[in-house]
Amino acid sequence: MLKVASVTRPPIVPDYDQMWTDVYGDHQESGPVHRHLKRIVREVLAPLDYATVLDVGCGFGGNIALLEHGRPTVRVDGADISDLALEHARQGRTGSFHKLDVEKGRLDGQWDLVHSGLILEHIPDDEAALRNMRAMTRKYLVATTIAGDFERYRAWDEAVGHVRNYRRGELEAKLARAGFRVRRSIYWGFPFYSPLARTLQNHSREGLGRFRGHTYALAEALYWLYYLNSWSRGDIVVVAAEPA
Predict the structure, then answer these.
(1) Is 182 helix (H, G, I), strand (E, B) or coil?
(2) What's the pLDDT score for residue 21?
(3) Is 174 a residue whose pLDDT tops 90?
(4) Which phi and psi angles does 221 have, rounded to 5°?
């Protein structure tokens, strides 16, 4: 069996204000992968008992409704490295929002649930980030990230600020070293997202920025096709963990 090596690129310092404006676009709402990711995370969250949440890397706040789903009394706070993202996330919301580079620091206090959505693949020292999340976690951590062969998809990954993809089991091992015990791991996306759609993304860069016209129709078609993807193979990783 061919082993996929985990590759971490040299540290870079992206401009995440620019990323949120020009690169990430409206993928959190309209992207087929993000829509399925929310569906998967909603299932992972369902059995967890929590009243407070810290959304690390909250961005514009696209995951807050997901974290509140079915829990009218839950409080969701956010943290992000981007001032622009925090400005958007605060609009119309009651939680507290903090500027934080989780690779370098942590907030005071603990939350029942710490959520990290598609953040770890951006962080050069991901183990430092996981240790900081552990310090802020009272009961649960739910993290989503990217697996697969970084070199194969390098053009796409670097365009969206990724410094690594995880080989299978690597994230779980790093969580254990940071003081977590893994409750559940899901690898999603085979065969229609990974490798097929990821290969097309890598060559065309299609999917960057805003959806327009025909790309909305394509995104909708892919969304329905992706219901056929495996929950045990693929390049999207969802892990639920708890303090060991």
Answers:
(1) strand
(2) 59
(3) yes
(4) -65, -40
